[in-house]
Design goal:
By secondary structure, the chain is mainly α. Helices cover 57% and strands 0% of the residues. Helix 2 (31-39) packs antiparallel against helix 7 (91-116). The protein is flat, with a radius of gyration of 28 Å.
Amino acid sequence: MMAAKVMAETEEQSRIRFQVELEFVQCLANPNYIHFLAQRGYLKEQTFVNYLRYLQYWREPEYARYLKYPMCLHFLELLQHEAFRRECVSAQVCKFMDDQAILLWQHYTRRRTRTLQPPDTPAPPAPPAAQQGPPRQQS
């Protein structure tokens, strides 16, 4: 019996695999892409589910720092559950996820903008009350 030759991954191959996996994980931030995968049956294939499990290493800070769309980690976590993978076939579920992601993004953006704004300067003092003429004498 001949021993299987296991070739070590070159530095170039490792770099390319990192880039491909980074791009794929970030695509998971898009609910429409998840819906596309579900419609095509990928989320039912055990090999694909195993691949999603393997990609959990992106949650580690040393890898997560490369992500531009951190929402992808939330969806990657949800994809670990069979019930969620089954529901992703529904267009209504996809639309709901998309709407919720947009709402979260808007809330985050507004909140971040408020946090980064300089503190409010004190309001200028109110102008003095308009003086009326001398008091009238009643006769």
